[in-house]
Design a protein that fits this description.
The protein is mostly helical. It is 64% helix and 0% strand. The protein contains 3 helices and no strands. The mean pLDDT is 83.
């Protein structure tokens, strides 16, 4: 069972053919889902990078920054 219409001739009115792909009208919902996932991923990425940065900064403070910067 096909949800989309088969195009047999290109000479007709495209509006008479009907939907050319499944879930026509669901684009807004998919856009909202994608934007929500993108925002969640961005927040997670920022938190993860900040945690890693804080951990590395703490290690540098404990070991002495001059060891890494001064070269001696």
């Amino acid at each position: 069972m096909s949800v989309t219409a088969a195009i047999e001739s290109w000479s007709g009115n495209p509006l008479d053919v009907g939907p050319l792909y499944p879930w026509v009208g669901g684009e807004l919902l998919l856009l909202i889902i994608c934007v929500a996932l993108w925002i969640c991923w961005t927040i997670w990425q920022i938190k993860t990078e900040n945690a890693g940065y804080a951990k590395e900064a703490q290690e540098l403070k404990q070991q002495g920054l001059s060891r890494f910067v001064g070269g001696k």
